[in-house]
Input
Amino acid sequence: MSAIAHIEALLEIINSSARQAIAEYEKEGNDVPTINSPEFHPLDNSTHNVALRKAVRVLEGACQQLCASLAPPQRTVLKVSSLSCIMQLNLKFFTFM
Output
């Protein structure tokens, strides 16, 4: 698979999983959340919507892979290492509480 075909495939996955997530929100009677919403996210209160959780996981994975493919490698490594440091700090903080 060529690099362009790989990117196009990721874009298709992103598009289809985002549409699937939107359909699942609507099926549950929820509005699609926005970044500015003061309400709890619908996934925070739902443990039974497997289809929505799967669509969001696929969307997150494809977005991360697309960014890792197009961004310079050092940026991807820096982001991953920064995230690891933050996670370690959170673990240490919550362990001592």
Observations:
- The mean pLDDT is 81.
- The chain has one domain: 3-71.
- The longest helix spans residues 3-27.
- The chain has four helices and no strands.
